[in-house]
Every structure is written in C-alpha cells, then in structure tokens.
Amino acid sequence: MSQPCHDMQERILDLALGALNEEQAREVQRHLDTCDSCRRYARALAEQGESLAALGWRVQADMDARRDRAIDALQGVAPAGPRVLPLAGRFARAAVAAVLVLAVGILIGRFTSPKPIDVEQLRADLQASIVASLQPAVRQSVLSDVDGRLDAALAARDERIATEFVELLRQDLRVIAAELTTGSEQLVDERFAEVVELIEAARQTDRRQVAKALEQIRTQTGMGFLRLATLTEGRPATR
Amino acid sequence: MDRHSDTDLVRAVRQGDRSAYAELVERHYAKVFLVCLAVLGSVHDAEDVAQDAMIAGLQKLYQLRDAGQFGPWIAQIARNLSINLVRKKAAVERALNRKPTEPVEPAGPDDTLRRAVARLPMELRLPLVMYYFDGKDVKSVARTLDISTSGVYLKLKTAIRQLHQILTADGEQK
Fold first, then answer.
1. Least CB-packed of A55, A115, A145, B63 within 10 Å?
2. DSSP secondary structure code for residue B67 in this structure
3. Residue A238 confidence (pLDDT)
4. What's the whole-model pTM score?
C-alpha cells in the first residue's frame, strides 16, 4: 500500500479529528481529490474512527446499569473524613497527633517502669553521677586555665629574657670592642718597645764588638788609641 | 431538577448528605468507567474497579482540597486502582511463569479493533478511548485527564496514527 504524502499526513489526521476550519478542510479535500494514496489514508482513518465510536456506543449501552450497580454498592459504605475530626485542619490534626504521641509515651513509661522510685537512692545516684560527671569537667577546665596562664607567662618571660639577652650582648660587644681597641694600642706599644730594645741591644752589641776590637788592637800593638793617633799624625811630616 | 455544581455536591456530602454523592456518581461514573476500561481493556474488570474507585472516593472525600476538581480527582483514583490491578495480574502471571494474557472478552466483530487498541501505550490509549467512547469532546477529555486540550490533540493524533499502523500491519499479515 502506497504511503500518503508526507507533508499531508498531519493535515489528514487533523481532518479525522475535526480540528480544521472550513477553509483548511476544503484545501485538504482538494488534495484528496487528486491524490489516491492520501485519499485512501483519509478514508482508512475515518473508518477507524467510526469503528471506535461504534465500539464506544456498545460500551455505553450498558453504562446506566453499571452506574446503578455502583450506586447500590455505596449503600453500605460509611464516608470518612470530617465526621471523624470535626476540627479538620493541618494544625488541629498535628496538635491531636502530638497529644496522642505524648500520651502514648507517658503511658509506656509508666507501665514499663520496673518498680516505684526510691527518692533517696535517686538523689544519691544523681549526686554521684553529677560529681562524677563534673569532676573531669572541672579538672579539665582548671588544667586548661593553668595551661593558658603558663603559656602566657612563658611567652612574657621569653620576651623579657630575649630583651635582656640582646642588651647584654650589646654591652659585651661594646666591652669587647673597647678591649680590642685598648689591647691593640698596648700591643703596638709593646711591639714598639720590643723594637726599641732590640735596636738598643744591637747597639750595645756593636759597642761591645767595637770595644772588643779596640782591646784586641791595643793588646796586639801595645798602644792605646792615643799613642796610635800620635804616631799616625807624624808620618806624613817625616816623608 | 436543580443542577448543583460539583463543589456544592462535595460540600453536601461532607455535611452528611449521602444522596449528593449518588448524584456525583451519576455525573462522573461513565468517565471513571472509561478510564478503567482504557487501562484494563476488560469491561468486567473496568466495572469492578470503577465501583471500587467510587467507594474510595466517598471514603477519601475529605482529602479533596478543591471541591470543584472532583472529576479529575476521582478519575485519577480510578486510574491508579486500574494500574494497581494490572500490576497485580502481571505479578501473578510472573509467579506462575506464564506470558501475560490479554483481557478475555467475548469474541465479536470488534475483536481486532479491541486488540489493536490494547497494544497502544497507556498514555495514548486513555485519550483515544475517552475521545471516541464519550462523544468526541476534546475539552472533556482534557478536564478528565487533567491535561491541556493541545496535549489531548497531540496524543490523539499519535494514537490514531499508531492504531492505523497496527491495523494495517495486522491486515497485511493476514
């Protein structure tokens, strides 16, 4: 079976549903007059719709009887809702639910309690429990406080020690610098004195060497310097 | 006879007037039945579930916030109950390790058409059945199914096209 024109399929479906106005319907009809495939398609859809409507009529034929049976079935049914909760409303329902939950909780607690409450025992237990629960907390609080104070004191002391240390270091540096200066001057003086002594010692040595040499000359010649000088003064004159 | 609005009737039922609910049933039963028939595909099952839906509507009427929306509301109840029945039947079929069976209806001249409609997806079957079985009123279908009229048109066109394809294919096979 040949297919209807692609661009006409939607129009033919609209026609089958009666969704076209008169002008649109006439336009589609003009195309159907000239196109066998589209005409067959439109006729098939129309027949399909008629079959469905006919099926619907047959189903509707017994509708009144079914409806009556449904109404009869309602006779024994009690409507629920507003009669159960006259103050129907979210808040009212929530309040009622809360009260019911509380009441149930109280009843459960009361009926599941193993024995009457011993007030003195309960007080003692509570005291022991409170003390036991508080002591670690108090201890922890005190320890935390001490730790905090210690940290603060250490921090302050560290700062003071650091300041003092810097001051001491500065003083030591100044002393060392002064001593270095003084020491260097003394060292120069000492070195200078040593040099002078060395020079003096050398001169003394030279003197002794000269004296020794003169003594040796006098010993060897039997004359003193004065005699030797006299002898030497007269030699040119004798020539 | 005075024609009361759905809102008036719902209020009357809430005040204890049971006859007002009978009037609501008179007014909406056919659409409720067609919703059930579209989902279930069986007249007998549809009648049972439509009746259950009307009973459930009476019992749950206090839950209806907008009394003027009784029609779509009761149709939704019917649809949910129908879907539940389909699922239960499918579960039973699975438990028995059998293929799902089609609704058993007396064989007749409409048999081919019924089977073809049953093969459409439910979201197409519903507007198709509601439209052709209840006076071809698109606006009425839109109100009952609580969707737009353009949405109904779109679904109807798709349903008609697919139904034609199914019937054509079946005809060619034979």
1. A115
2. G
3. 41
4. 0.59
Inter-chain CB proximity A17 and B26 less than 8 Å: no
The CATH-assigned architecture of domain B106-174 is Orthogonal Bundle (1.10)
B20 contact residues in A (CB cutoff 8 A): none
Between A182 and B17, the higher pLDDT residue: B17
The dotted CATH code for B1-104 is 1.10.1740.10
ipTM over 0.90: no
pLDDT tens-place string over residues B58-114: 999 999 999 999 999 999 999 999 999 999 999 988 888 776 666 656 566 678 899
**Does the beta-carbon distance from A55 to B110 stay under 8 Å?**
yes
Give the distance from residue A22's alpha carbon to the nearest chain B alpha carbon, in angstroms: 18
Residue B63: closest C-alpha in chain A: A81
pLDDT, tens digit (0-9, with 9 covering 90-100), for A147-171: 787 777 777 777 777 788 778 878 8
Query: What is the distance in angstroms between the Cα of A27 and the nearest Cα belonging to chain B?
Result: 19
Distance CA A157, CA A166 (A): 14
Delimit the domains of chain B by residue range.
1-104, 106-174
SS3 content of chain A, % helix, strand, coil (to 5): 85, 0, 15
Residue A44 CA to residue B161 CA, distance in Å, equals 11
Taking the C-alpha atoms of residue B19 and residue B8, their distance in angstroms, rounded to an integer, is: 12
